[in-house]
Amino acid sequence: MNIISNMKRILLFFIAISFxxxxxxxxxxxxxxxxxxxxxxxxxPFGMTYVPMGxxxxxxxxxxxxxxxxxxxxxxxxxxxxxxxxEITNNEYRQFVYWVRDSIARTLLGDVNPELYLVEExxxxxxxYDPPFLxxxxxxxxxxxxxxxxxxxxxxxxSERYFRVKQIDTRKLSYKYYWVDxxxxxxxxxxxxxxxxxxxxxxRAQQYTDRSVYVREEEVNIYPDTLCWLYDxxxxxxxxxxxxxxxxPAYDNYPVVGVSWKQARAFTVWRxxxxxxxxxxxxxxxxxxxxxxxxxxWEWAARGGLELxxxxxxxxxxxxxxxxxLGNFKPRRGNYIGDGGATPIVVAHYPAxxxxxxxxxxxxxxxxxxxxxxxxxxxTWDLNPAxxxxxxxxxxxxxxxxxxxxxxxxxxxxxxxxYTRSYExxxxxxxxxxxxxxxxxxxxxxxxxxxxxxxxxRK
Length: 459
Description:
Elements: H1 2-25, E1 48-51, E2 54-58, E3 74-78, E4 81-84, H2 90-112, H3 114-117, E5 118-121, E6 128-134, H4 145-150, E7 174-180, H5 182-186, E8 215-221, H6 228-231, H7 239-244, H8 261-281, E9 290-291, H9 295-303, E10 365-371, H10 376-379, E11 401-405, E12 422-425, E13 433-434, E14 438-440
């Protein structure tokens, strides 16, 4: 009898323990959210600086009667983000070119030697990859007997070679990527544009059968147009820059040019992939998404917290109080060297603005993500305003206009002003246009905000 009584007590004890444990796991019946999630910490991206959120008057800060309608003053608010300290350099863009080159080579070599150039299964879990991954640990044998024939199509055909020199055919360096058109998905009535894949997708609230119709495929040749130095200036001897500017080590830290808006956008996708793959290997959730800055973000960053000033350094002049030029532009007719550089010069040569950003005025103009419309200031929202439009190849040229900002080495000082708008077509590449990337600020748990005292802006 005592044994049965003791067993009942033990059973009741375990039931009580289980009940308390279940209460503990559920928050004691209170709404406590999902437990066990790791606190999020967004590290400062390498080579970038923090631009705090803020509100400012976007547009003209002084009189400009002829162009006032293009940049009418408008008070807007911008969320925080990170931005590259300098424009993307030749050497940084070359990393992208080499990655695409090696990716194509490994794909071709995978047919010849899959054990060396492909990863077909996870050795730890036994999971089979279909299709297999490229093995980036293997070194490419460009002159190997087995590889020579497989890689032949990557090189310029023998009939087109100069002096019989064997070189990579840059026309083959194409980068394919996919992106989700969330703007199309958000529309109540989505125009099909005659695409049979879209079928009955006329209203996003009805007949959801396949969301993949919003996945877009892009394939872009990513090699810079090195001939831009010649066709931008027909009657000018720029052969030296044409032959050397992108590949020669003397120009490694110069801003990359000859890159179209499409190529710049492809670079941001690749950079995102590169960073997130590294993060995933460390067991962390990927979060990085690099992109081109919106027009508003670019202007906010260029101002550096200075209100109603026409230049990133403040003040109404492109010189300092000692008469020294503060940017690389065309100071006088025919005189390009008055500021210290005739063509693009090394990045970060001139002082940074108050947020640590270099060359926001002059050197090379910069692509933004926004499409260009003279009246876009009038209809965009006042919180993170942006006007985006991804034109198809067959659309009219006016639909392919993208905003460029900052002015360049060949422009007069007017184009260096933080509010001046200009445009170029998304599929063209110029010797005076480069770009830089941004990453949205998601917030950090640790108390190490690099701009605690930067929310009070000076005038």
